[in-house]
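Entry type: protein chain
Record version: 2
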Amino acid sequence: MINPSNSPAKPKKIITIIPSGRLIESIPDTQPESDKSDSTSEEENSSIFQAIGVIAGTVDLKAKPHPTISIENRDYALYHAPQKKLIFDFLKKQIRNSGSDYVRLMVYPRVIHFPPRDKPHVIGFQVLGFDNGSKSGLFADYQDFEFRFTGLWQFIPACQTPCISVFRNFTAERLDYIKQTETSRKVRFMKASHIPLLWKDAIVPPFRFNPLLPKEERGKPSFVEIKAKFLPHRNIFAFESLLGLPQEKPPKFLKASKDDKLAAFKEKKANIAASKGNKPKPQTKPVKKAQPKTQTKPVQPPTTPHQTQSQ
C-alpha cells in the first residue's frame, strides 16, 4: 500500500501462523528496494504450504490417551505442538470461565494413513488456539468446519482418495536445522501431511505417479489453493471454493530423501529390536517333567507291636 504522506509509514506487527504450529511476530522490512538482497524467487511465488481451519464441538480434556472433541457423535483426538504445551491449560480455564465445554478451535488437521489402501485413515486435530468470544482473525473469516488448504493435489500410495499434500515450507533456518540434526529426527521434521479431499470436477486432475512412463512424460502435481469443508459424517474433507488458480511450480519446500527415509526406518527398526532385547525376561516357574507312572503297593496302615505283615 502506498503511503499518501511524505513521512515514512510506521511498520506494522504481523502475526504469522506457520505449519509447525508456532505464532511468529515480525516487523516488515521498510528499507528501500535497492538495499534489499536479491529475492526474486520468493517474490515470484508468495504462496505457502498450509492446512488450517476452524472446528467446533464438545471438548473432553480428561479423555485418554489424548483430549478429544466430539463432533456429530464422533470423537476426534486433540494434540498440541511441542512448543504449545500450555494450550490445554488455557483451554481448561476458558471452559471453566465460560461454563460450557462447547468451543470453537483453530486447528491443523492431522491425518494418519495405513499401508493397506482400503484401511480407513484416522483424523485428529492439532490445536493452535480457541475462540474466546472476540471472533477475530480466522474465527471471523471462517465458519465452523471450514479449512484453507494449499498444497500439491495428488494421489498417494496409502490412500484411495486423492489428497492435498502439505509439506514443510522452506526457510534458511530450517535448512540449517536439518543439516545438523540426526536422520530420524530430520525425517520426522519434514514429514508431510496428506489430507484426503473430495473434489468433483476438479479444475486440474490429481497427479498419479506412474513408474512405467518415461520420466519426461510422468508430469508433476499442481499446487492448489482452496477452501474446503470438513464432513464428520464421512470422516473426510470436501472442496468448497478456489482461493487461487493452480500453479505448475509450487513454493519451495522441504522433503526427506528416499535414502534418509530408509535410514530412519532401519534406525527405528533397530531401536525397537534393541528395546525388546533389553527388557528383562518374565520370570516363570520351571516346568516339572512328567514322571513315568509306576505300580506301587497299596499303602498299609502302620503296624503295631502286635501286628506283622505276612510274607
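Comment: The chain has a mean pLDDT of 81.
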